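Quick one, T. Sequence first:
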Amino acid sequence: MGQEIINFAHRGASAYCPENTMAAFVKSIELGATGIETDVQVTKDGHLVLIHDETFDRTAGASGWVKDYLLEEIRNLDAGSGFHSDFRGERVPTLEELLQFVKECNIVVNLELKNSIVLYPGIEEKVIAAVRSFDLTAQTIISSFNHYSLALCKQLAPEIKTGILYMEGLYEPWNYARTIGADALHAEHHAVLPEFTADASKHGLVYHPFTVNDPEEMKRLIKAGVAGIITDYPDRLHEVLEAEGSSRK
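Structure tokens:
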């Protein structure tokens, strides 16, 4: 994945476009993102779709659970006009659509498995199979708040990096991460300090904190030694990285 700090666009350029849509993913690259973070769930008929919430109410104007909809039904939903009328008709994309885009752009993709509230049996195998089918194992990170799922992913695909999502207060997370074979710490940004990144590095782990939208906090984290930052504003992070000269080449 190179030595540069990865500019992960959180759900795409979600400050400017409806989150987790192809419009947001395309815009993020235009704004300087070098990675995309998104959320993966499973339809009733077993397809992988990109949406954060377990229901459609907030982002796609429909009631009910993702797990109870067929892909054809989901593709008829409007995932754009709730954000702004300019995006009317934007659809909930499939994972395969994003992976094709990632392959064309040669960027990093961080796939968060949304399997804490709804467990989605078999989501790990499905995601891994999709990533392998596009030959993107070296450019992919799988993350989740469900660490049992991450442990399974590492067993199924040791070649794909995994990142444990967590909030503040996890004691010596680099030691914990080793128990499930994780490669990265996807911590809430307040839980990242220079001494933590140094200790993690000694154990072969890197930090990719979320969700960082303030330029001053971005600067603090860069100085702290993070390997990537997840942000709604990839343009802000791009400007900070350019100004800081923070490439690790």
